[in-house]
Amino acid sequence: MNSSVITDSETLALREFHPFKTDGVTYLYMVPSAGIFRMDGPSDAILEALGKGPKVKTELINELSGQFNIDLLLETIDELIEIRAIGDIDAPKDLVPNDLPPVGFPLTTMVLNVTNKCNLACTYCYEYGEDKIVDTKYGNQPKFMAEETAKESVEFLLEESRGQDVAHITFFGGETLLNFPVLQDTVAYARRRAAEEGKRIEFSLTTNATLLRPEIIEWLADNQIGVTISIDGPKEVQDGLRVFHNGKGSYDVVEPKIKELLKRHKTRPIGARVTLTQKNMDVLKIFRHLTEEMGFWEVGLAPVTTQDQRDYAITSEGKDDMLEQFGVLAQEWLECALNDEHHGFSNVKDTLEEIHKGVSKAYGCGAGLGLMGVATDGDVSLCHRFAGSPEHTIGSVTDGIDRDKQGKFLVDHHIASKTDCHTCWARPICSGGCYHEAHVQYGTSSHPNLHYCTWVRSWTHTCLEIYGALAEKNPKFLNRFDA
Ligand code: SF4
Ligand code: SF4
Questions:
Q1: What is the pLDDT of residues 161-198, one digit of tens each?
Q2: Contact (CB, 8 A) for 155 and 193
Q3: At a CB cut-off of 8 Å and minimum separation 6, what does 450 contact?
Q4: Would you state the CATH architecture of domain 117-150+164-344?
């Protein structure tokens, strides 16, 4: 809408945005466009006046004409209408991005579950624990992906990543390194085939680190494989829930192996991925141990996915505590960023990148669209967490994607279907959240994760404040998110 269509007698009202302040400066986070705008004296005053209720434009100008020049007020009203912060009281709300993605949207990341077997028995594991959705232990799926299936998966990715110069393969498990021979063959094959097709493939994997040994570390470094280590923190924390099948803790096994990996593998940054539970909530201690004592470049922490009745499920007080500690690390991260220094708390970096890029999501994540998981038998599912679940299978690497099934998934999971989210200012970033979390909590992947709303909004607000502070004091730091 443009000011030229609003006459002086029409009534103006606030539209949808989330305001936040940094060092006394007000910013608006626009919903649903995800744009961010800095306010000044006149715009602040106009928003404050309309915050008390809608006003006829002439009345609004009269009310503020003692403080500001009328031309400046008119110009500012025009600008606020342009960014959709204010508008005609009767104008329809901009609810959500409406368009469905085109059929054949390219695949950019394929997660290969090279095995569903694991040498650890972590209590909270979504694959083997109490909330599992696929019977990986007694089910029909092979325990290990065959070399042939992995090669077919590579061909599938090359075909489905049409138009993209770069595609990504992430190896996953079970414990990924239990199928090391297939990893080696797949990387060599994918590199050769990608070169023939004029593409590049990047590789990464997630491992529990128990099986790292010198020749594997050498191979990871030489092949520039990005590595994420699943680890929960110092010995007393790690040994509480990340245990072998005989109940023995895994810290003493993984600690020297991780240190060796970090010493030798310098071709890609190595990250740690922590699962937080009610039994391990000392975020600051965990973070400091993993960065300062272990030497990880970055650490990402995520709350466990589980039903509320489990004794390790995070309580609402626990979520508040987690948020407070995240806030402390976020402030540290900001201090470092203001001095152009690195800080390893990747949760901030990931959210800031989305804010900077103006991401306004129609889907909680890329699963079933730009990202898919491949089960050990070659079935293609929404993502690695659904690998092997018939209900969430949308094709196979040999037969391709079932476009009808994928199309239905895209309609059912679109933000337009999540009416609970339509009044939430955080929906450009959240869009209902993780489908797997929703499946565990509500029995269906299409349900918005309403149990996490307060947390998501608080965390997004914190990251917006950090973004504002950086934009104000060290804007060039944000350039790194342009890539
Ligand atoms: S799940 Fe909650 S926080 Fe996320 S978009 Fe929906 S209402 Fe907002
Ligand atoms: S559904 Fe959840 S686990 Fe799967 S890719 Fe999306 S966010 Fe990740």
A1: 989 999 999 999 999 999 999 999 999 999 999 999 99
A2: yes
A3: 420
A4: Alpha-Beta Barrel (3.20)
Length in residues, the chain:
483
Task: Give, using CA atoms, the residue closest to atom 4 of ligand 2.
Answer: 383
**Distance (Å, rounded) from C-alpha 374 to C-alpha 384?**
7
Our CA angle for 377, 382, 386, nearest 5°, is: 65
* Spans of all domains in the chain: 3-88, 117-150+164-344
Can you point out the beta strands (E) in 351-478? 371-374, 379-381, 393-396, 400-401
Digit-coded pLDDT (tens) for 22-77: 989 999 999 999 999 999 999 999 999 999 999 999 999 999 999 999 999 999 99
Cα 30 to ligand 1 centre (Å)? 16
**Separation of CA 417 and ligand 1 centre (Å):** 13
| DSSP reduced 3-state for 91 | coil
Q: Which neighbouring-strand residues pair with 300? A: 273
Q: To test ligand 2's pocket by mutation, which of 204, 434, 447 has the most ligand atoms within 8 angstroms of CB?
A: 434
> Which CATH class, in words, describes the domain spanning 3-88?
alpha beta
Instruction: For residue 429, give the ligand 1 atom closest to its CA.
Output: 5
Does ligand 2 have an atom closer than 6 angstroms to the CB of 369? no
Query: pTM value?
Result: 0.92
Spacing, Cα 16 to ligand 1 middle (Å): 15
Which ligand lies nearest to the CA atom of residue 422 in the structure?
A: 1
